[in-house]
Write a structure and sequence with these properties.
By secondary structure, the protein is mainly alpha-helical. The protein has helices spanning 85-168, 185-190, 196-226, 230-247, 249-260, 266-279, 281-296, 299-302, 315-336, and strands at residues 2-5, 12-15, 23-25, 32-34, 51-54, 65-68. Among the domains are: 2-30, no CATH class; 95-150 and 183-309, no CATH class. The protein is built from nine helices and six strands; from the N terminus they run ββββββααααααααα. The radius of gyration is 47 Å and the shape is elongated.
Length: 337
């Protein structure tokens, strides 16, 4: 039965289900209206559709009611479980094995990154410090060359003025006053009579070459920390060793002068001592380059330069990992003994 309320008299009236959606008249007031249509429920059982039996919880073990199989979904105890077959099982096992191997490989890479992080950072900081000292040394030596050239020019002008005065008085030209100041640093390096332009060009060229070489060292240190390029690391370490050995002459000579020259005053002594301390990191950088090269040549570190997280894991990687595990076990046994 269809139970509705009359739109005219507002009284409840009933009609048969077969009149759903058809025009009717109210038996009380006679007003005509159309009955609403009956929409089938989504969970209604259609003829010929498979159904399952489900107990009504509220009925406490009452008779089973018919429901659609869609209400159970995959949780249905009567759902058919298809056997994936041996091929799919092998694919699933292979996929799981690949995930496990990749996870272990990533853990090994994280351990290697932790091993090289601090040495690479200090090595890069040392090379960067040497680059800063190179720029400061260029500025100091350039200023020293300017001051030395200015003093020589003033001395030459004074001699020329004395000669001009002697010529006007009809006398012989002056013999020239000897210089009464010591040689500057650039004069001791390049010579007293070397032109100022040549000295400046030599300073600029040497500084530029040194900065380029230190740039190679810094780049190699950065790539060492990220396992980016093994060739860059080797090149940076070789260049760092050569620069460190060549630059070690400066602190050695300064400390040698401090120990053997007793005629220096306090300011000269402090200047040479400070210069020796500032240039001391150059030989330390050369030593650090050798240590970084030795660390990068280790088997577990070197292989990280040739593998990326997105690349597949080969059998060679597994063999190397197995060898490393065996070596670690042997080391542990030796320590226990």
């Amino acid at each position: 039965m269809i139970r509705v309320r009359c739109p005219g008299c507002q009284r409840p009236v009933e009609f048969d289900n077969d009149r759903a959606g058809k025009p009717v008249h109210c038996p009380e007031c006679g007003k005509g209206f159309r009955l609403p249509s009956i929409r089938p429920s989504k969970t209604a059982v259609k003829p010929g559709e498979p159904v399952l039996e489900k107990r009504d919880k509220a009925s406490q073990g009452g008779p089973p009611i018919a429901v659609k199989q869609d209400e159970w979904g995959d949780r249905s105890p009567y759902a058919v479980q298809h056997d994936p077959g041996p091929q799919k099982k092998e694919e699933e096992e292979r996929r799981v094995s690949e995930l496990v191997r990749r996870a272990e490989r990533l853990k090994a890479r994280e351990r290697a990154l932790a091993t090289v992080d601090k040495p690479g950072f200090f090595y890069k900081a040392l090379a960067f410090y040497c680059a800063v000292i190179t720029v400061i040394a260029f500025l100091v030596l350039s200023g020293d060359a300017v001051l030395a050239a200015f003093k020589r020019k003033m001395h030459a002008e004074e001699i020329a003025r004395q000669n001009a005065d002697a010529f006007r008085q009809g006398g012989a030209p002056a013999a020239g006053k000897e210089r009464d100041w010591p040689l500057s640093t650039t004069e001791r390096i390049f010579g007293e009579k070397t032109p100022y332009v040549v000295v400046q060009l030599a300073l600029v060229a040497s500084t530029a070459v040194n900065l380029v070489l230190l740039g190679i060292v810094i780049t190699g240190a950065e790539k060492f920390r990220k396992f980016d390029s093994y060739n860059w690391v080797v090149a940076g370490c070789i260049v760092g060793t050569l620069v460190g050995l060549a630059s070690s002459v400066a602190p050695v000579s300064l400390f040698y002068q401090i120990m053997n020259d007793s005629g220096m005053d306090v300011y000269q002594y402090l200047g040479k001592f400070l210069g020796g301390l500032l240039t001391l990191p150059f030989p330390l950088m050369g030593l650090a380059s050798l240590l970084v090269l030795a660390l990068a040549s280790r088997k577990d570190i070197k292989r990280e330069f040739y593998w990326r997280p997105g690349q597949p894991i080969t059998d060679t990687d597994e063999e190397e990992e197995a060898e490393e595990d065996d070596e670690e076990d042997d080391d542990d046994e030796e320590e226990e003994d």
